[in-house]
Amino acid sequence: MIKKKVIVLDATAFYAGIPLSSFSHPSIQYYTTSSVLNEVRHIKQSIDAMDLLVNTGKLIVADPKQEYIEEVRAYAEKIGEYDLSDADISIIALALMLQQSYEVTIASDDYGIANVAMVMGLSISYTTSRGIRYPGKWVRYCKVCRITYNDASKVCRVCGNKLRSRLVSSWREKEEQKKREEGREGERKEGRINES
Ligand SMILES: [Zn+2]
To answer: Do 40 and 111 reside in the same domain of the chain?
Structure first.
């Protein structure tokens, strides 16, 4: 049997202004979590359309079980994605939970959500931006001292500067690891193969 299609919407999907017509698709069921709904209620001026969707059953408000929330948190921590809100986590966890019975896609424009979702093997569709090309691990670094931090530090422990973040994809990380193992050999000439 073909699994029913489900789309889990995060707050950015609502801000992007989803056309009501997209909810008329008979075989797609939309979901969101109560924390996202509350967030949108606080920010959006007009929530009539959203309430209509909830009242007509096109949009189901459901919350993930604690075990799924914990699984998402563990993944987020593993890849250094520390800036996700509880609402963000709830969306990924709900998608994970619903995936047991449905074909699930997360609709979000949030880089952090997309990153964690991709690493967890969940599918993502972008509402406005061009999206991210590959999942990766966030690494914080000090531009001044060139020190990399693999924890949730916000400022450099040496100079006190605000840390920057950069996304290191798994393949790039492997490449950098390899370079470190090869040691510093000064300028590496392009096309040269290291033999040892
Ligand atoms: Zn520094």
So the answer is: yes
